[in-house]
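Explain my protein.
***
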Amino acid sequence: MGSPLFLVLFLAVTVSCSPVSSLSLLDNVSILKVDRPYEYDPYKGFSTEFRASNLIVNQLDAKFLSAQDANVSSPVAQPFVITFSCNLTATICNYARDGFASAGKRITSALTFYRPINIRANFYSFCGGRSASSCDLKDTLGQATAAAFIAARPAKSNDTDYYMYPQGLFKQLSINVDVKDSDYSDYDILAEFNSDFNFHYNSSGTPIQPNQVDFEYVVLHELTHGLGINTGWVSYASIGALNSIKPKADYLAPIPDFAGNSIATATVPGWLPLNIFDKFLVDSSTSTSIMRSVAARIFSFNPKNRKLADFISDFQNSGDPYAAAQSFYKLVTANTKTLSFAIPASKHNPNAQSAFLQTVRNKYLPGSSIAHVDYDTYWQTPDFLMIPAVQNLTGLTLDQIVLRYTPSTRPDPTFKVLPAYGNLTLGMLHAMGWPTKDAPERVSVEVMDSRMGTPTSAGWRKESRPSVAFGIAVALTLLFGSFSVI
């Protein structure tokens, strides 16, 4: 093994489009921001935020900001800054670095960036030398999450609900306050990749073998999760740290806002908003909005600063809110294709076609269910990228897969790479607010006023309190059904 390499990659690309004017600015509006830690251990990765079996301690920050710097209105020339930690040989680390660079070009050929995205990526052995039989992550190729979420709601619309926007997406939007770079978390996306696998690296110059997985495919898949294809729905029973409380396993619910440093002392002052991804979830058979039919009923339950154990117990005896959570679990585990992402009509999806999301009969799979597209429907289509497993795509490079399912695809003239987002995938990203090359306008949002303090004459005041929060990551696996890993 070589010495660890710490590389910062600057993917320098130039994106051009007409400047988009920003909203009028409001003084002293607060941002509710949830951060995740990113302490790096070469054998464990990013602390515990990638493990659904643990709780992590975060800070919930309320920042009061005054209008100081104008909103950025022109696309950036350097859309990605990737801090890459690799504890393998220099040759393999360089191949992996090249894979990140190419994946970044593919994303930039499809999306428009007004602020750079900061990525912290680790490449290491998930099993750390343990045997496959004793390693829960043996089938996990990679996993990723947004490093921070910011609560906001779409402006100039009839939607009054707030959603958690991944910080990387939030930075691209037209915001009703000015946010300085120093107000953001250091990283937008946390990603890690499993060196236990026999990856193929395009820059190696060798042909891919039948048992290899294209490393760039995995990078692009995971970064796309970090861009926003991720859910805020969770099964409390899948959280190992809650075993002492013994939550029931027959429901799914949004993530509560936990205040406190331990399970014993944690209280629940309220609910965190669902992710912007979750805004578009519908029952496939009826097209009924999950936000309206399920989430609204759950949110009617007032946590009232209950102790964590009391919150879970009382919620499970709350009548209609609990029944709503049970109904969503039943929907997600009733069969395949029971849940869809309703993509609005756009240049990318003129017929407003919905995308079936990953659900499995009689089984909820943390890290797989909901946050991927349906495997059977899409693995042989242009929207193959966001399926939950690659068991039928081994032995193929990303370019070979693209050309197999979209033979007419041609390289992007600027970045010289084949686009890898199908129209449904791109439509999902655009629906959540991502500016694209074909639709570069910035969506307007209003940030949440948390009412946790008052503005000061200096313009803003940061108030922090300890908060226990779930860490949720989404993973790409080698084999379909191997999802007990996170």
Notes: The CA atoms of residues 298 and 321 lie 4 Å apart. Residues 90-110 form the longest helix (21 residues).
